[in-house]
Design brief:
By secondary structure, this protein is an alpha+beta fold. The chain is built from four helices and five strands, in the order E-H-H-H-H-E-E-E-E. It has a single domain, classed as Hotdog Thioesterase (Thiol Ester Dehydrase, Chain A, Roll). The mean pLDDT is 97. Residues 18-121 form the MaoC-like domain.
Length: 144
């Protein structure tokens, strides 16, 4: 288990990979973002991306899952605090393999036995193009 005192500015954590399948993309969108370019293959083919694209919220959920698996599952996380400046930088098409990085920008220890960890999360597609980035803040327990 890692605590706030174990985390340092500049720490870079590689995230695993996730392939966004078409069924997953459409199922997510039907439940959470039912816009035609996420759910209707035929209509999306005549749209600006030439086919279906994942919801940005879906892409953000993938980033969260990869971050939990690569980091938070081994940290004494209390809770997330904030997402800031989340940007959707490019389309995620069915079959896209996503991976990324989590880079710690700041660790501030407070007098309540916790640290506020601020980090930049970036996801890239299988051609290395950034599709999402943003700043995340999470509270992590201190040892004491």
């Amino acid at each position: 288990m890692l605590y706030a005192e174990d985390l340092f500015v500049g720490d870079r954590i590689g995230l695993g990979t996730h392939t966004v399948g078409e069924d997953e993309l459409v199922d997510f969108a039907r439940s959470w973002d039912p816009q035609w370019f996420h759910t209707d293959r035929d209509a999306a083919e005549s749209g600006p991306f030439g086919g279906l694209i994942a919801s940005g919220i879906h892409t953000l959920a993938v980033a969260q899952r990869l971050t939990v698996e690569a980091a938070y599952a081994r940290w004494a996380v209390i809770a997330g605090r904030q997402l800031r400046q989340v940007r959707f930088l490019g389309p995620v098409l069915p079959g896209t393999v996503l991976t990324g990085t989590y880079v710690i920008d700041d660790v501030t220890i407070d007098d309540r036995g916790r640290g506020l960890v601020t980090a930049t999360v970036t996801l890239v597609d299988d051609e290395g193009r950034a599709v999402l980035d943003g700043t995340v803040e999470s509270f992590v327990r201190c040892r004491g």
